[in-house]
Amino acid sequence: MTEPVLVYLKMRALAEAPQMLMHHARMAYSYKMAWDHFGKPWPDSKREAPFRQLPMLVVEEGKQIAQSGSIIRYLSNHLGMMPADPVAAAWVDSIFEATQELFMPLNPTINFAVEDDFETKRTNILSALPPRLDDFERILDRNEGGFLVGKMPHYCDFGLFHHLDLAHFLDDDPLTDFPQLAAFMQNMRGIDDMAAYLQSRPELTGVGVRPQLVIYGRPVSTGLKAN
Q1: Rounded to whole angstroms, how far apart are CA atoms 42 and 118?
Q2: Hey, is 134 helix, strand or coil?
Q3: d(CA 48, CA 35)
Q4: CA atoms of 176 and 187, how far apart (whole Å)
């Protein structure tokens, strides 16, 4: 297989779960910012991407896979990490879709909101989060395997880990009342190559004030442009 290329932008959002999964599976890949991949600013490149949005995974013969859910499902199938039983596969997928419902409040707020806007959104998110967390807490409690389905991580686990990881930018300990979720986060940090990925990815700093990613040792503002 040609080494895939994951194309995205300067933010910690939709490209995280696929990268965690690929690192865990020790699958070689390249990560490129949109302007590096297309050779021009992202606004001028949108028509070259399916549906004019990212992330995008480029695979054999330059074929493009769009939509973050489609990307991670493709990777799971390719890497043999999809349950063979269709009912179990559907359950994994339904949990993943539920984790993605956390995207809209968390990802834009953490990556872009500042000052009063950030504080307002932070308050609203923290008040709305407990019922959603309780849903995942109950799933973990019923499974008893340390992960969402069975005794190994599936793509839904990476989706949940990413969003709970972001929630820590809003509250130092958002999982105080959710012991199963707290244990889940520890379990995920302990899977093969997860710690290495978390340590090597660009650090996200200045959340709520001036969000920046530290890329090659240099802080750069989050966003859709190279500079």
Answers
A1: 26
A2: helix
A3: 12
A4: 16
Residues of the chain with CATH 3.40.30.10: 5-80+196-221
Task: Label the pairing between strands 203-205 and 5-8.
Answer: unpaired
- Select from 3.40.30.10, 3.10.580.10, 3.40.50.2300, 3.40.640.10 the CATH code of 5-80+196-221: 3.40.30.10
**Predicted pLDDT of residue 1:** 63
Q: 177-188: per-residue pLDDT in tens? A: 999 999 999 999
What's the mean per-residue pLDDT of the chain? 97
What percent of the chain is modeled with pLDDT above 90?
97
DSSP state of 219: E
For 133-159, what is each residue's pLDDT tens digit? 999 999 999 998 999 999 999 999 999
CA distances from 207 to 45, 188, 202, 222 (A): 28, 24, 14, 10
Which three-class secondary structure state does DSSP give residue 30? Answer: strand
| DSSP 8-state class, residue 152 | S
Which stretches of the chain score pLDDT less than 70? 1
- CA-based Rg of the chain, rounded to a whole angstrom? 17
For 90, the token pair is: 């559907």
Q: Which fold has domain 86-190?
A: Glutathione S-transferase Yfyf (Class Pi); Chain A, domain 2 (1.20.1050)
pLDDT at 2: 84
Angle formed at CA 169 by CA 168 and CA 175, multiple of 5 degrees: 20
pTM of this structure: 0.97
